[in-house]
Structure formats: structure tokens, C-alpha cells
């Protein structure tokens, strides 16, 4: 079974704090993704990584950065947390099979972040 | 134009009927399409993937793909109360790039009424 593990299920942080969300997968997947999910907006892509040390911006990267120093771990960093970053954060990973037929993504359990 | 669009619902269907969920996408080069189900408070889980035009059946679920119309749908036959969830359409964007990504629609909330 694929396992994608996020470091925290619930997190409460103060405005202005630097926040780290960690995600680890155990299936040697090349691709990893960070999404946030808000009511009525679905999953929006923040950043993704297609290999170690490689990263690409998604649709809403402002206020976030990422780090992928090892293949199994993908970290999302909120440089200075703000209340509008209160959300559910979902990490996902997948194997990149070939250039035309991309496989599905597997999700972690999610981190509900509240910024006060 | 959004990259992946779905009707947000809610879609209410009587138990035992067919539920039909629809999705359109903007990237003509997309080759990989996915349907996820998400229960309240849980993470999305894959129901089906589809890569070729036509229908793909798995139990009570049928995914349909029409690349010419940039349209993908999910049919759920003999709907059960346990099918009540949010259904997310996902499309792989930038298929021929090493940096291809998965983009989700906003989801359709499905409710099966007894």
C-alpha cells in the first residue's frame, strides 16, 4: 500500500510565524504535490516537485515556498503565516510512468492549519 | 477560463438511480484523467483513471472520455447512500513535460436520498 504521511493532523500558529508542513512518502515516487483546499474552491495547487531539488510553482504560490532535498520528503513552508492561509493542506505523490500516461496521485491525511 | 471545471452541485439523486457527474478541461494535450471521491473530513481517494476515448467500467462506476469535446464524465449506477460525497475531477496538465501537474476541479457534491 502506498503511504503518504503528513507530519501533523491539526496545527495552530500565530500570525507572522514561520510554519513548516512536512510530507513523507514511502513508494519512491518522483512527483510530489502540495494543495490547499477551501470550501467551494476545490483543491488548488500551491507547488509541486517532479524530482529531488526540482520544484515548480502551481496556481497559488504566493506566500509559500517548498523544499525537496530527499526523494521521499517534500516540505511546504509558510514564510510568515497570515490568517488567509488558514486552510486544509494536502500533500500527494505519484510515480511518473512515462511522458504521456501519467499515473494517479495518492494523498496524505491532510493538515488543518489555523492561523490566529 | 479555468483549467478544469465542474458543476458544484449539490446533485441529489434517489437511491438506486444513476448519478451523472460532468467535467470539462481546457488543455487539449491532456492525456490522463482521474475521478476522486472525498468524504467529509477525509482525503480524496481514487475511483477511476481513464486515458482513452470511450467508456471504462469498474463495477457500478463508468468513466467516459471525449477528447475532441474536452469532456470527461462519471456515471454511478444503482446509487447507494454510501456514494454521498464530493466527487473531484482531475486532469494531468502538460502531459509531454517532465513537469506535468495534476489540476483538480472544484468538485461536485453528490447526495443520495433514500
What do these coordinates show?
The complex is a heterodimer of chains A (116) and B (114). Chain A is mainly beta and 116 residues long. Chain A is 0% helix and 55% strand. Chain A is built from no helices and eleven strands. In chain A, the strands form two sheets. In chain A, strands 2, 4, 5, 6, 9, 10 and 11 form a seven-stranded mixed beta sheet that branches. In chain A, strands 1-3-8-7 form a four-stranded antiparallel beta sheet, with no helix packed on it. Chain A is globular and about 40 Å long. The termini of chain A are far apart. The mean pLDDT of chain A is 93. Chain B is mainly β. Chain B has strands spanning 4-6, 11-14, 19-25, 33-38, 45-50, 54-58, 61-66, 71-76, 85-93, 101-104, 108-113. In chain B, the strands form two sheets. In chain B, strands 2, 4, 5, 9, 10 and 11 form a six-stranded mixed beta sheet that branches. In chain B, a hairpin with a 7-residue loop joins strand 9 (85-93) and strand 10. The model of chain B has no long low-confidence stretch (mean pLDDT 93). Chains A and B meet through strand 5, strand 9 and strand 10 of A and strand 5, strand 9 and strand 10 of B.
Short descriptors:
heterodimer; A: 116 residues; mainly beta; seven-stranded mixed beta sheet; four-stranded antiparallel beta sheet; 11 strands; globular; B: 114 residues; six-stranded mixed beta sheet; five-stranded antiparallel beta sheet; 54% strand
Amino acid at each position: 500500500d502506498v503511504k503518504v504521511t503528513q507530519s501533523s493532523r491539526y496545527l495552530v500558529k500565530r500570525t507572522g510565524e514561520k510554519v513548516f508542513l512536512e510530507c513523507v512518502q514511502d513508494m519512491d515516487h518522483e512527483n510530489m504535490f502540495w494543495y490547499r483546499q477551501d470550501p467551494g474552491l476545490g483543491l488548488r495547487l500551491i507547488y509541486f516537485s517532479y524530482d529531488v531539488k526540482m520544484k515548480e510553482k502551481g496556481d497559488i504560490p504566493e506566500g509559500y515556498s517548498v523544499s525537496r532535498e530527499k526523494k521521499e520528503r517534500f516540505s511546504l513552508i509558510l514564510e510568515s503565516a497570515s490568517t488567509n492561509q488558514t486552510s486544509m493542506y494536502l500533500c500527494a505523490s505519484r510515480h511518473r510512468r512515462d511522458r504521456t500516461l501519467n499515473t494517479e496521485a495518492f494523498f496524505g491525511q491532510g493538515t488543518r492549519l489555523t492561523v490566529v | 477560463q479555468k483549467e478544469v471545471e465542474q458543476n458544484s452541485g449539490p446533485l441529489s439523486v434517489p437511491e438506486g438511480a444513476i448519478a451523472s457527474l460532468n467535467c470539462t478541461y481546457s488543455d487539449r494535450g491532456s492525456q490522463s484523467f482521474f475521478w476522486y471521491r472525498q468524504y467529509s473530513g477525509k482525503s480524496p481517494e481514487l475511483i477511476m483513471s481513464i486515458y482513452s476515448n470511450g467508456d471504462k467500467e469498474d463495477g457500478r462506476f463508468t468513466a467516459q472520455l471525449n477528447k475532441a469535446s474536452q469532456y470527461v464524465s462519471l456515471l454511478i449506477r444503482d446509487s447507494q447512500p454510501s456514494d454521498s460525497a464530493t466527487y473531484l475531477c482531475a486532469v494531468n496538465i502538460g502531459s509531454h513535460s517532465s513537469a506535468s501537474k495534476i489540476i483538480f476541479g472544484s468538485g461536485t457534491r453528490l447526495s443520495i436520498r433514500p
